[in-house]
Amino acid sequence: MSTVDSGAGVQDAADLVAGLPPAPAAWCTGLRKRYRKHLAVEDVSLQVGRGEIVGLLGPNGAGKTTVIKMLLGLVRPDAGEAMLLGQRSADPAARARVGYLPELFRYQPWLTAAEVLALHARLSGAGVPAAEQRDCLALVGLSGRGDDRVGGFSKGMQQRLGLAVALVGRPEFVVLDEPTSALDPLGRADVRDIVLELRSRGVAVLLNSHLIGEVERVCDRVVVLDRGRVAAAGTLAELLGQREVRLHLTDLSPAAQQRLAALGRVDREGEWSTVALTDDDGTAVPDLVRDLVDLGVRVHAVEPVRISLEERLLGILRDGAASRAAGPS
Amino acid sequence: MTTARTVLTIAALTLREASRRRVLFALVALTAGLLALSSWGFSRLAAESLTSGEARLTASILLNLVMFGYSLVAALGTAFLAGPTLSGETESGIALSMLARPIRRSAFLLGKWLGLVAFGSGFVVLAGLAQVLVVRVTVDYWPPAPATALGLLAAQTIVLLTLTVLLATVISPMASGVVAVGLFCTTWVAGVVGAIGEALGNDAVGRVGSVSRVLLPTDGLWRGAMNAFQDPSAIVQFGGAEQGAGAFPFLSTAPLTLTYLGWAVLWVAMVWALAAMSFVRRDL
Ligand SMILES: Nc1ncnc2c1ncn2[C@@H]1O[C@H](COP(=O)(O)OP(=O)(O)O)[C@@H](O)[C@H]1O
Ligand SMILES: [Mg+2]
C-alpha cells in the first residue's frame, strides 16, 4: 500500500512541477559588490523572463558589467542571490544553456576561428555538429574565414566571432555586453537582426548597449542602472508611456482651460498648450478635441509629442543627479 | 560536460598552445644548441688519454652540468609559459569566455596544469634522453639509473611549474615567471652553500641547504637526479664524501630518499590546492 501511495505522491509532485511555469532565464535580488572602497553595485534586483529581450542601460561605471558577471557566476556578490535558468549562478551547471559575449572579448590568437567555435561547442557540452558550427560563423558574417587564425582578425571580426561563440552552444539565454562596441554600422544591423531572430526562437537576451536606438528597437523591457542602483525598470511602454499632446488653441475660455487641466499637467506657451496624457486608452485626444470645440475653442493644430528612450534615459539620470544634490542620503 | 572531459580538453588545448607559440621553437633551438655543443665537448674528451676512472668521473660531472642546463631551460620555458597562460589570459578575456561555460574552475586549472606538466616533463625527458645517448656514443658512459634520473628531472620541472601556477593566480604573469625562476636559482645556490657548509663541518651553514630543500623541493630532486646520472665511483674518485666531494655543485653524495620524494609529492599537492583555492575565489 505504502509504495503505491508514495508512487502516487511522486507522480502528483511531478505533475505539479511540470505544470509550473519555467523559471526565469535570469533572476537576481539584492546584489551588492564592493571593490575595495568603491561600491560598484548596490541592491540590484532584476529579472529576465524566458524569451524576453531586456536592455541594460546606464552611464559608464554604472555597474552593468559587474551585474552581468554576478548573474553569470563569474564574480562573487558580497550580498544577494542570482539564478540562471532556475539554478543558482554559483553552480557551473547553471551556465549549460547560456551564451556570453564579454565586454572585453578576446579569443585564442593561435587558434583558427573554427577551432575556437569547436572548443566552445565542446565545453558547452551541447554536442553541436560541425555543420551547425559553420552556420553559426556564417550567421555573424565570418563564413569563409573559419580557417584563418584569430590572431590576424580585426577587433570587429573578433567581436563577430565572440557573437558566434555566444550562440554556438544552443543557448536559451544570451548575454551580450556591448556587442556592437567594435562593429561598423552594417555589423550593428546584423546584431539587431540576430537578436530579433533569437527572440523569434524564444531565446531570452540581456543586452547592454550604449546605442539606445538599437535597444529601443529590439527590447521588450529596459532596466536602467545608475551608480550601482536600479534607477528605473519597466517595459518600453511603461517607461515611455507618458505621452504628451501639443495643441494650438485660440479663444480659450476658463471652462476650456478646466477641461484641459482635467486631463493632466498643462504647460502653456502663448497659444500652444502641452498636455500630459496620464492614462490614455486611445479616446482621450478625440474626446478632448470634441469637448473643446463644443466649448467654442478654435483648434488650429493637434500634434502628438514623442519621447525617445534617449530623452527618457537622460531625464532619469538627471533626476537621480538632482535628488543626490538636493539631499545626500 | 563531465569534469574529466573538461580537464582533458583544456590539457589538450594547453599543449596545442605550447606547440603553436614561439616557446616551442625557442626550446627546440636551445636544446639543439646544447646537444651539439655537448657532443662536440664529449668527443674531444674521448680523444684525451684518460684512465677509465678519470674518464667516468669527467663524464659524470659533465653530464650533470649539461643536465643542469636542460633543467634550467625547462624551468625558464615552463615558468614563462605557465604564467601567461593563466593570469595573462584572465586579464585579456580568453579565460573569461571559457570560464563562462558550464565548467568548474578547478577542472580548468587542473587541465592547464596537466598540459603544462606533459609539456615540461616531456621536454626534459626527451632532451635528457638524447643527451644520455650522446654521452653513450661519444665516451661510452651509461648512467647507473637513467630512468630514475630522468623521472626526477621531470619531477623537478613539475615542482617549479606548480609554484609558477600558484604565483600566476596571485601576481602578474611575467612577475610570476621571474619570481619562480628566481626562487629556483636561490634554492640551487642555497643547496650548494649548504653542501659546502657540511663539507667544512659547519652545521649552521649546512642547515641552509636542508631548509631550502624542504621549502622548495627543486634542489633536493635535482640532487637525486645527479646521483642517478653519475658513476658511483665518482665521489670516491673526487676524494670521498668526507673529503669535500659533496661541496662540488655537480656531484651528489647521496641518493634520494623515499621520504623526500613523498614530501615533494605532498608539496606539489598542497601548492596546487592553494592555487586552486585562489583561482576559484577570484573575481574575473
Ligand atoms: N575588477 C575591478 N576592480 C576594481 N573596480 C572595479 C572592477 N570591476 C569594476 N570595477 C568598478 O566598478 C564600477 C562599475 O564597473 P562596471 O560594472 O564595469 O560598469 P559599466 O559596465 O556599467 O560601465 C566602476 O566604477 C569600476 O571602476
Ligand atoms: Mg561595462
Question: What's the gyration radius of chain A in Å?
Answer: 25 Å
Mean pLDDT of chain B: 87
Tally of structural domains of chain A: 2
Give the fraction of residues assigned to helices of chain B: over 70%
Structural class of chain A: alpha/beta
Indicate the proportion of strand residues of chain B: under 5%
Low-confidence blocks of residues of chain B: none
Oligomer: heterodimer
Number of strands of chain B: 0
The small molecules bound here are: adenosine-5'-diphosphate, magnesium ion
Identify the CATH class of the largest domain in chain A.
Alpha Beta
Q: Which features characterize this protein?
A:
heterodimer; A: 329 residues; alpha/beta; Rossmann fold; Alpha-Beta Plaits; 2 domains; 6-stranded mixed β-sheet; 4-stranded antiparallel β-sheet; 14 strands; 38% helix; 26% strand; B: 284 residues; mainly alpha; globular; binds adenosine-5'-diphosphate; binds magnesium ion
Describe the structure.
The complex is a heterodimer of chains A (329) and B (284). Chain A is 38% helix and 26% strand. Chain A has helices spanning 2-19, 64-71, 113-124, 130-139, 155-167, 185-200, 212-218, 236-240, 254-261, 284-294, 309-326, and strands spanning 26-35, 38-48, 53-57, 79-84, 87-88, 98-101, 173-177, 204-208, 221-226, 229-235, 243-250, 266-269, 272-277, 298-305. Chain A has a 6-stranded mixed sheet, sandwiched between helices. In chain A, strand 1 (26-35) and strand 2 (38-48) form a beta hairpin. The N and C termini of chain A lie far apart (64 Å). Chain B has one domain (3-281). Chain B is globular and about 65 Å long. Chains A and B meet through helix 3 of A and helix 1 and helix 4 of B.
SSE layout:
The complex is a heterodimer of chains A (329) and B (284).
Chain A: H1 2-19, E1 26-35, E2 38-48, E3 53-57, H2 64-71, E4 79-84, E5 87-88, E6 98-101, H3 113-124, H4 130-139, H5 155-167, E7 173-177, H6 185-200, E8 204-208, H7 212-218, E9 221-226, E10 229-235, H8 236-240, E11 243-250, H9 254-261, E12 266-269, E13 272-277, H10 284-294, E14 298-305, H11 309-326
Helix pairs in contact in A: 3-4, 4-5
Chain B: H1 3-20, H2 22-47, H3 52-92, H4 94-99, H5 105-139, H6 146-170, H7 173-199, H8 203-215, H9 218-229, H10 233-237, H11 258-281
The complex binds adenosine-5'-diphosphate and magnesium ion.
